[in-house]
Every structure is written in structure tokens, then in C-alpha cells.
Amino acid sequence: MTVSNQLFTDLATRSFSRVQAKVSDLQAQISSGKNDPRASADQMRASQLSALKEERAALDHFTNAADQAASRISLSDQAIGDAAVIMRRLTELAIQAGNSTLPAEGIQGIRTEAQTLRTSLVEIANRTDALGQPLFAGYSAAPAFKETNDGVQYIGDGGRPSQRLSETLTMAVGLNGDELFMTAPLAGDRTSVFGIVDKLVDSMDTTMYEADDAIAVTGRGKLVLDADRTTKTLSMTINGPDGSVDIEAELVAGLPQPMVDVINAHSATTGVTAEVSEDGKDIILNAESEFELANFKRSDNPQRPIGSLQQLEFRGQPGKNPILLKAVTMSSDAMLLQVQAAVGHFAAMRAEVGAMGATVDAQKEALDFRQLRIDEAVAGLEDLDIAKAVTELQTLLLTRDASQQTYVKITQTSLFDFLR
Questions:
Q1: pTM score, two decimals?
Q2: In three state form, how does the secondary structure of 212-263 look?
Q3: Which regions of the chain carry the CATH code 1.20.1330.10?
Q4: Relative to the CA of 153, which of 7, 21, 120, 348 has its CA 20 to 30 Å away?
Q5: CATH code for the structural domain at 60-203+334-368
């Protein structure tokens, strides 16, 4: 086979190009500090990198979800804390309202502040998260609460928003408004926090403030009961000259006869008798000395006066003006207990949200650890062994230079050099 100068030159040029390409690749890798990312360079390494990067992308998604969960829980915790501050202030106002010596202006000033605090409480209940979604509406995207003729009503659902924080962990990241604002425990039952606040505001109305839940008269008194067409159950305690008894009667269309019959059925115990007034609307009570009516309760839980009790003339003593009666649930002591129950309820709910926050924080730490391990594994596959690469580069450069010098020597030789 004849080797021409042209073929020799072509072969040498190709060889130099391959070496130069390797040199350029190594220089680029050394400059970036990364191994050749192409699968053709190392299929096994490329496969491992692909799997690790997919896992890292999933972890990034979970980390983002954990950040959103932490933000929502933090906003919920702040909202519940703000609501608790309002209820503690209402507790202070309830204590102030229990002072029977307050002038009308004083109780109205307290009532005005209570109404302002109620408005703030509704605003807190309708707060939203960083994405504009309501914090306490469950799965609903609409505001959680609205004002109605029957007070503040919850219009969300019973769900708890949740986030998936890992392949195996999906957890609630907040509370719904029903369990937070509508189910405060009170005397073995559940009641609305807004209902408690509304009752407190109503108890500070001038008329209610002047009413009493326990009134004593001597000898004769006229009991006037609030009358309407509905049937209600009224209970009270009679503390008579001979003893005390708790009684209960149904009032049908406000007619007094059922209550008269119940009072007379216990006259031997209390020493108090009753009769219907001449106009058939009221109840006349009689005793030999002082007696007291107290602990009024009515089945419709009234937030307005339920009637009045008036001292009538007795044995030469003049009568007095009637005194309004209110249910014991509207007394200052009862209102204080109800507001304190709401404060305790918010404390319990805040503790539950705090536990959610602790779980999310722990999960974020676990995700950070997993991300670190993956980053280390990726670095082990991607990062270049600089010392090894520099040595290889120096070898290639030396080989290239030697090859080029040899090529130059050979190409400078001609037939005349052999004929000498």
C-alpha cells in the first residue's frame, strides 16, 4: 500500500483534532468543576443522576408545600391569639359591668367597646392566608362567616385544609370555623363564641343592666311575665318564709294559670301562694313575710327582660315600682363564666394549632436532611476530580505537543535528504 504525503497529513490532522477536542473538553470540565453530563460519557452515572434529580424535584415540591403549611398554620395561630386577646378584654369588660353602681353613661361606654371588639372578632374569623384563601372556611373558598338576622353564622364546611408533606405524610394544616368559633364548651354543651359575645353586649343594654335575676318582696307582690303566642318553659326558685323550692311550668300564650297552679302546689313547702290578677294577665303572690324569686330560666334563652316583680301594698306599707326580671344566664356572673369559657376554648384550639406547627417544623427538618443527602450524592456524581483531570490534561497536552513536533520533523524530510 502506498502512503502519500496527502494521506499522511489527513491522518495526522484528524488525530490532532481528536486530541484537541479531548483537551477542550477537559478544560471546560475543569473550568466548571463538573463531570461530562452527557449519557454517552458514562451511562451508569447518567442514570443515577437522573434518579437523584427526580427525587430532589419531589423533595422541592414537598418543601414548598411545607413552607405553605407553616405559613398557614402561623397565620391561624396569630388569628387565634388575636381572638383570645379580644376575649380577655371582654372578660375585663364583663367584670366592670358587674359593678351595680355604674352610671348609665359608664355602662354604655363599656357596651360600645364590646360592640367594637365583636366587629374585630368577626374580621379575625374571616381572615385569609397568603394565597387569599380563608383560614377557617374548611374546604370552601368563600368567607367563613356572615352576619344574619340571627347573628354571625358559619357558612363554611366541616373540613380541615391539608397538605401532603412527604410520600407518606398528609396532615391537616388548620382548623375550620365551626370547631373554632361555634363549639365553645359551656356547662356540658357547645355554644357559639359570637353568641356569647352577643349576649354580653345585650346584657350591657341599659334596660338589661337595670334588670335583676333575684328580687325579694314582702307580703304581696305582682309577677308580670313577658307574654307572646309561643309556648315556653319557665323555671325559677322560690325562697319563701317556710322554705325553698325550684319550680317549672309551661306558659302557653303567656297565660299565668299554669304557673299559679305550680306555685300553689308547693305552698306548703314555701309559704307562698298565688292567684291570677283580676284582669287575668298577671300573678299575685302572697306570703306572711319576705320571699324571693330567683334563678329565672326560660327555654328560649331570652336576652331581654322576661317580666317584672312589683312590691304591692302590705299591712300599711306602700307599694313600690316594678323591677325588671332577667334570666340568670344574663347575669353578670353568668356572663363572666361564659366569656372565660370562650377564652379557655381558644387556648385549647391554639394548643392544637401549635402541635400542627411543631409537626410541620419536624417534617421540614427531615426534608432538609434528605435534600442534603441527595445533594451530597449528586455532588459525588457530578463534581469533577480536579487533580485527576489536571493530570490527564497535562498528559494530553504533552502527547499533543510531542505528536506535533514529530509530525513537523517527518514532513520536513524529502527524497534529497535520503540521497545525501
A1: 0.76
A2: ECEEEEEEEEEEEECCCCCCEEEEEEEECCCCEEEEEEEECCCCCHHHHHHH
A3: 60-203+334-368
A4: 348
A5: 1.20.1330.10
